Structure formats: structure tokens, C-alpha cells
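Summary: Need help interpreting a holo structure output

Steps to reproduce:
1. Submit the protein chain below together with the SMILES for zinc ion.
2. Request a joint structure prediction with the ligand placed.
3. Inspect the C-alpha cell block that comes back.

Expected: a single structure record containing both the chain and the bound molecule.
Actual: see attached output.

Input attached:
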Amino acid sequence: MIADLPESVSYFPLMGYGPELKAEQFLVLFEGQIVLSSTNSWLWGREEFTGYETSQAIVVGHLDSTVIGFAELRYLPEGYEVISPRQLLTMTSETTFGLLSHGLQILTSRKEHRFCGYCGTENMAEAGEWAMVCPDCGHHAYPRISPCVIVVVKKGDEYLLVQHNRHGKTSTMHTVVAGFVEPGEGAEMAVSRELMEETGIKVRNIQYCFSQSWPFPHSLMMGFHAEYESGELEIDNEELCFAGWFHKDHLPELPPEFTISRQLIDL
Ligand SMILES: [Zn+2]
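--- attached output ---
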């Protein structure tokens, strides 16, 4: 069982690399998994953390007045338990979601931008922002954020729900259509295109609802509602294994409550 922090704690992201700040508590990762401390907490105290070899260590923000760092270990210490970031998200508050989403994406960015994409020189962290900067040609590489659309389609009292191949054949969870925005495309255009490509249906009255950062590895999910206009369901077998209309009073198993797909359906 994970010992969690009280819900009342507030999280404030650090808007840039602060070389003067020293983390007092750490979220510790190993190969993308979160390593729990010796007391089963998802944050380690500085004393327990000191002495371990890290490949990445950054300060990402404050939980109330405590400075929080994220670090990646080179090896997993014996006897320590790991959980996936998704597991931690399922049991958390907005505070933890914000902290995880921010920290994981900054760590990813550090790994993706170790070298300059123009001249190949090793990049350095820039104080005051999250860019990695080339000391030779000055190129700035900012953390990548990938815009994605996700949409609930309504037809009278029914919703369009789908099952993705990536969730596996045994999964009973139903979710909604989602996809990346292509270069040159607006978000509403992406909604229309994704629905047509994946399910063969046309929609109207596309309405933006709200968004959610999704750190796997750097998506910004933009949530929409739309109304069915025309077309028969014809699924793209590469992406989906099922698509169907469900009455609002008889919905199948849905994604967990913290996900934007569930929040869009609940709305
Ligand atoms: Zn360069």
C-alpha cells in the first residue's frame, strides 16, 4: 500500500531550470517506473535518496513549501518496490496529477534533447526556462507537447464508444475516439478526420469542452463533444477492434475517473 500525501497539499510547477534550488523530496524513477521509498511512500526524503547514482535529476516544483525533484536511478536498489506512473495516477488527487505530468515530461525532454538537432553538440539546460540550449549554435529545444483530440459523439440518447487494439483482446473497457492533430490542421478538423478515418461517420456541432495534460509521453488531450450527422459504422482495424452505440443508461465498462475520456462521457 502506498502512503500518499494529504489532499490539501498544493502543487506549484517550477517554470524553468533553477540551479540554485535543492530538492528536499524526490520522486524516483527506474526505467520509467516509480520506485517507492523504504516506507512505501511515492516521495523519498533527501537522506534516503543521497548516495544513489542517477542518470537524470531535476527540480520540478513545490508541494506547498517543499521543493520536489524527479530523478532517474541507474539501477534498482534491492528490496525496493516499483509501480507504474499510471498506477499512481489512478489513486491520486489533481495535485499529484500536476506534479507527475510536469516532471515526467521535463525528464523526457531532457532525454530527447541531449544533443543539438542542428549541429550535434551536447546541449545544456537553460536557467529560467525548460529549453535545452546548444552552446555552439544557440538552438533552443523546448519540451515537445503533442496536441491530441478526443471526442464523445452523441446520437440522441446514445454514445459512440470504441475498443482499441492497444488495450488488448481481453480488455472489456470501452472508450472514445482520439488521435493526434496533424501539421496544418485545426483541432476541429482533426476531430472530423479522426472520426471519419476510424469509424466512417460524419459529425456536426463540434464543441470544445476542456483539456488534460497526458504525460505518456507528452500529449495535450483536447476534449470535444460532437453530434452524429451521417454514415454507417465501419472501423479501422489497425486502430480499433470494436465501435458501437450505447444508450446512456446502459454504458459498458468505462475508463477510470481521472481520465479525460471518462470526464467527457460523464459530462
Ligand atoms: Zn547546435
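--- end attachment ---

Reviewer comment: Residues 116, 118-119, 121, 134, 136-137, 139 surround zinc ion (CB under 6 Å). The chain has three domains: 11-112, 115-144, 146-266.
Status: needs-info
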